[in-house]
Specification:
Blueprint (H helix, E strand, L loop, with lengths): L4 H10 L7 E5 L4 E4 L13 H8 L5 E4 L5 H8 L4 E5 L2 H10 L3 E4 L10 E6 L13 H11 E12 L23 E8 L2 E2 L3 E4 L3 H10 L2 E8 L4 E8 L2
Parallel strand pairs: 3-4, 3-6, 4-5, 6-7
Antiparallel strand pairs: 1-2, 1-8, 7-12, 8-9, 8-10, 11-12
Helix pairs in contact: 1-4
């Protein structure tokens, strides 16, 4: 068993070895596929929510969970100082190979070496928090990474629709914790990752956590599939 299935897939695709896509298995009993070409898309092929987030980046940017480096590359090519951070060794290797100048291999919760004007978390980047009770700790740590006038840009989704009943209501009575906490494993080319938690947080819950931790939470964009883009900046 390998722990960096995601990084291995990125490395294969970057080296023109594309045997298959990444398969994800979740605690919601759904199997899905992450197409590798999508992880290497350029700006014009990104969804509106990502384009808007990139257009709102300013100053020094920390791209948290950078993946293959597509967002960092766009910012870098447009003259923005960006640092790409990821816990995946393969992702960082690919980001470097694609031309990202500044990279960091680290869990963001273990990183505190610099301050940034924008913290960027895309593709449901706040999911790295894993569980709702850990969101407060993340926001407190993020505050330490921000400059005085800095802010966080993140997107997420309200997955309440996964619990829709036949009569159109939503039933989460059997959910033990917050309904947006999902456990995933990734499979790729005969290898499987360790299970990991991923958080999908609805905007109202995010806003409540933001206020509790001294942030103002602004809704910048709402998509058609319960997804949204938010901007958080400290109020004190």
């Amino acid at each position: 068993m390998t722990t960096d299935v995601f990084g291995k897939a990125l490395l294969d695709y970057h080296s023109s070895n594309y045997p298959e896509d990444i398969t994800t298995h979740s605690s919601l009993d759904e199997e899905d596929v992450i197409p590798l070409p999508y992880l290497f898309r350029d700006f014009k092929n990104m969804p509106k929510i990502e384009q808007l987030a990139l257009e709102n980046c300013r100053g020094k940017v920390l791209d948290i969970g950078c993946g293959s480096g597509s967002h960092s590359l766009y910012l870098q090519k447009n003259g923005i100082s960006v640092t790409a951070l990821d816990i995946s060794e393969g992702a960082i290797e690919v980001s470097k190979a694609r031309g990202v100048t500044n990279t960091i291999l680290s869990n963001v919760m273990n990183y505190s070496s610099d301050k940034f004007d924008t913290l960027l978390l895309l593709m449901n980047g706040i999911g790295i928090v894993g569980e709702l009770p850990k969101l407060d700790a993340f926001l407190n740590h993020a505050r330490q990474l921000l400059t005085k006038d800095g802010y966080i840009l993140l997107d997420s989704s309200d997955i309440i629709f996964m619990y829709e009943t036949e009569n159109g209501d939503y039933d989460i009575s059997d959910v033990e914790n917050y309904y947006g906490e999902v456990e995933f494993t990734m499979s790729y080319h005969g290898e499987k990752s360790k299970p990991f938690k991923w958080l999908y947080v609805d905007f109202d819950t995010l806003n409540a956590s933001a206020e509790r931790n001294g942030f103002h939470c602004e809704l910048l964009f709402e998509g058609e599939h319960f997804d949204y883009l938010a901007k958080l900046y400290p109020t004190t």
